[in-house]
Amino acid sequence: MTNQPCQACTQTRDTGYAVQFAGAQNAVALQAWKNGDKFTPYRELNESTIWVPEHSFAGLIDYFQAHMDTDQLQAAPLTADETVIDSPWQSLDQIQRHHSAHWIDDVIADSRIKTVFQPIVSVQAGMATVQGFEFLSRAIEQDGSLIPPYKMFEAARLRDRLFALDRVCRISAVRNANLVGDKLVFVNFIPTAIYAPEHCLQTTFEEAQKSGVDPRNFVFEVVETDQVDNVNHLENILHYYRKHGFRYALDDVGQGYSTLEMVERLKPDFVKLDMHYVQGVTTDVTKQKAALDLLHTARAVGSRPLAEGVETLEDWRWLVEAGYELFQGYLFGKPEATARQVVDVSLT
Questions:
Q1: What pLDDT, in 10s, does the model give residues 336-348?
Q2: Distance CA 177, CA 214 (A)
Q3: Cβ(287)–Cβ(280) under 8 Å?
Q4: Nearest-CA neighbor of 43 among 19, 63, 11, 62?
Q5: Alpha helices (H) along 196-256
Q6: Which of these, 110, 249, 253, 279, could form a disulfide with 270 (CB 3.0-4.6 Å)?
Q7: CA separation for the pair 333, 116 (Å, rounded)
Q8: Which CATH number fits domain 107-328: 3.40.50.80, 1.25.40.10, 3.40.640.10, 3.20.20.450?
Q9: What is the pLDDT of residues 184-202, one digit of tens each?
Q10: What fold is seen in the domain 7-100?
Q11: 127-154 as b/e, with b when 16 or more CB fall inside 10 Å?
Q12: Domain with CATH 3.20.20.450 in the chain
């Protein structure tokens, strides 16, 4: 049996869920729902499993929770035209979290991404001088408001769309590179979202070439380094960037043998000291040691050290005196829609 399909279910993007019902109580409740509900579209996969579309799922969950033993329900993502369930079955709680993040699918499909710019500065004659910008991504709501990045990427993880979101953000950033003239362009990428660089990065490189920006001005910044299990794969990605004339950076590097060993092995062009070790470094000897250890390691492999998360003059002065060359943080400017070429901040 199949209920009457609605227009939304015929859309190519439509996704949904296979829901499996176990237990005699649920079997009776399911049959009563099938006999009584004349409005909700569904497809019967077998006598104990139905497919329901994404847009109807929340209402059905309310009904199921009111009338069924939800501990004996399980579900799995399934698109409208699929018949074989390849995804693992999940509890109703797990699948509800997956469903609650479905908005990210439309963000990705419509490329509703806005690039914002945060300045990266050096010190010249005691003044902060803009050397480049980190290009950061924000998702755009239907009403035009911006969605915080942590919410955006968490939704992508729940929906298993990290590859697609990372690609959309990276390409959007590269397309905006010519807005900052000859300044450095720091673009984030998640290495676990790049399966094969020769395929996954092709569009990125094409857009970089179209921008007319010198390839060496692009700095592709590895984020979530701690999530990388296969360092050989990461090395392959970074070698591919460098082979095509681009540079790369390691982000959020902190204290400890493993992170310093990573810097020594990967030899990035830039290395960013995690803000945890930046904020309060003036008075914290543990943070000072971490900052100096990274500085010495960076110099040994030819990397330029950058301190991120700088918020006070005192911390900035300490880092300058220690030998750090580049700086980023709210002291110099928050991420903004316009790339400000002048920052009025002085060491004195």
A1: 999 999 999 999 8
A2: 10
A3: yes
A4: 19
A5: 197-200, 202-211, 231-243
A6: 249
A7: 12
A8: 3.20.20.450
A9: 999 999 998 888 898 889 9
A10: Alpha-Beta Plaits (3.30.70)
A11: ebebbbbbbbbbbeeeeeeebebeebbe
A12: 107-328
Residue 48: what residue type?
Answer: S
Tokens of 185: 């362009």
What is the token pair recorded at 245? 């004339």
Domain with CATH 3.30.70 in the chain: 7-100
Q: Please name which of 104, 111, 247, 119 lies closest in space to residue 172, comparing C-alpha atoms.
A: 111
State phi, psi for 39 to the nearest 5 degrees. Answer: -115, -35
Number of H helices, E strands in the chain: 13, 14
Give the containing element (helix H, strand E) for 129: strand 127-140
Q: CA 288, CA 280: separation in Å to the nearest integer? A: 9
Q: Which two tokens stand for residue 291?
A: 């900052």
- Statement: the pTM of the whole predicted model exceeds 0.70: yes
